[in-house]
Amino acid sequence: MREISFNKFYKSFNILSIVLIVTSLILLAFKGLNYGVDFKGGTLIELRTDLNSANIKKIRDSFNQLNLGDVSVKNFGNDTDFIIKFEKQNSNDPKFIDNIKTKLSGSIGTVDFRRVENVGPKVSAELLQSGIIAIALSLAAMLLYIWIRFEWQFSLGAIVALFHDVIITLGVFSLFSLEINLSIVAAVLTIVGYSMNDTVVIFDRVRENLRKFSDIKIFELTNISINQTLSRTIITSATTLLALLSIFIFGGEILKGFSLAMILGVIFGTYSSIYIANPILVVLKVSQRTIVKEDKD
Amino acid sequence: MLYFSKLRIFSVIIFTLILSYFSISNFFKIDDNFFSKNIKLGLDLQGGSYLLLEIDNKPVITQKLQNKVMELKNFFKDKNIITRNYAVDDNSIIFDTTPDKSDELNNILDDDESEINPYYQQYKSHEFDFVKNQDSFKLTLSKYGLVLLKNASLDQAIEIVRRRVDEVGTNEPNILKRGNDRILVELPGLDDPGRIKSLLGKTANLTFQFITQNTEESFGTEKLEFEDGSENAIVSKRIILSGDNLVDAKPSMNSQTNETVVSFTLDRVGAKKFGRATSTGVGKRLAIILDGKIISAPSVREPIIGGSGQISGDFTFQSATDLALLLRSGALPAPLNIIEERTVGPDLGQDSIDAGIMSLIIGFILVVLFMIYKYRVFGVIANLALISNLFLLVGVLTIFEATLTLPGIAGIILTVGMAVDANVLIFERIKEEIKSERNPIIAFDSGYTKSRTTILDANITTLIAAVILFFMGSGPIKGFSITLGVGILTTLFSVYFIARLFTAFYVIKNKEKESLI
Questions:
Q1: pTM of the predicted model as reported, rounded to 2 decimal places
Q2: Contacts 24+ apart (CB under 8 A), A11-19
């Protein structure tokens, strides 16, 4: 197979990545993330209306009359389904949801509450905390694993690639104000696993080649290794993306955010294994001596 | 790597068949107990309600402190030590003694064997920590004492919650402790938890107290509101009878007034107390108080000595039924707050199942076609491994009776996408080996050997993420981590035993053929 000179573009793609990361960080710092009820607390109602005449405006007006604070109404999947979110949550009033239901039926006809989620402030704070801990913990575990398995230069490369993927994925979520809920945390963790997986495959090959060839510079060597593993990288990304696209398109509204985060993660993960993890090996001047020293130990 | 002993082939086949059997058994009804395991559907798929309740232990702690004050007073009185100026705040008791006795009192409180420290013998730890400041003492519930107290009240609350939920008769409720002050209630199939919520939201503390003639609140009386908010009444603090003395309660019809009432039966002690109080209190109004609000306050016309009575108060049949249920199940030790609620209607659950299965089938077909396109015969082998992988995965989930959630289905689909990775790594490696090695059997062998570390590395990283998710995640997310994690293990099995077995058969049979892969 023809060899592609990935290494020619290390610099330009690194600049692109830096721009993307900085933009993402700025977005995260100033625009922030759109937390769902899981993390912000509040009430979410998914409802299905009987009539096609019920539109967003009508539903928003009906909810606004109920004094629930800031209400957001969105179409969900099809024309008759809506997601309504508001910050007020009062689960101690057992009639809270019933009252809303009764009042709504008066103004927009029969409504079917398909899903109700009501999360108190204490629980949402705990869920957010445990989500952050889970992500931090998995990053730490990956760091530890790769530190045991590889030399520190490789670990650094892999970890930078990981942060790259997670930050940019969250940046995209911030840019488009996509909702962050519990399943996004799961998606981010899976991205962490996938990105690591992809990087490790190339790194294994780099290390193997380092043992084999003493006269090839790391700049060339990374390129050879990327090319050798390229068809695997493409095939695995392709099958994973096929599965994820299938969830995104056919898996229903609830899994949309989750599968979107995963799709972004897989794309960035594949890209970063080539254009983030490898250039770092070049910058750190990894050579045969790096691993020979390790082998002797 | 291509050699398989007969025994190994046999065990792989048996293992795969057993797990496949379990996975297929989900779709049939089997009477045998051992084999009738099923994957449980999570609430997001079968519909139902998830309620997280938090117990508000303040009243329990206050009660405990007040009891302790009584105990201390009596104890020191017997010991001829003067104690005074008792005060109780959120979590401590403060009192003074006379200067000459303060050291003696200090020693008694400090003594592990002292009767005032009954906890020590049992738990080797004090229930209260104390600080002495000259003649003043401050007793604070110790960390251990607090935990014991909370656990006791949680145990009691969980029992009452269970009784109330059982009485409503929902389908296989799941009631679990969470930490030391929370209760998780899962109610499969319940799409409107309103009634359960209102039942669980009531402490159901029932008391009978006389209404006094006074118009102002004074010592020994309290001002209480009627439940409908219409008026107030000054009630004597003396409790004639409490819900503890009730043995039964049920809704019924009062034949004279034709209204719905709750009739109750008292135990022997209760009947005696009630008889005595009503004989002395003829003509007075007896307030029936539930959770600090007066339900009704009928006048006592004659002594009630039979040990049974009726509570009237503007009930509908439903509210009378609920009150009777609450009285039968007993009072909660402390109020419960619902801090999280998630309810999914059954039709949304079914929609989610349909969508999940749809995307699984489509994702699966896409991956299968892609693999055949890329690898031909070996694509078919990888697909056979993929299919058996699915059977193994579902089989393992079935044996452990795991709960399948919507994110769990997503985890299965993701496994389908990622499972081929290991075979791809192997096949690509073999392709490279075949360039330099003429003997296909050796090339295949070294392809397998050389890709092994990479495959392990790659899968362990994902497994780490799944394990962390399992321990940190809640509810549906746990379901995802289970399918993802188990999926990795079954993937490795299917690749190294099933796909390799097929590969070995094929390669050994076709070793003369040019360009095998």
A1: 0.87
A2: A13/A271, A13/A275, A14/A275, A14/A276, A14/A279, A17/A164, A17/A272, A17/A275, A17/A276
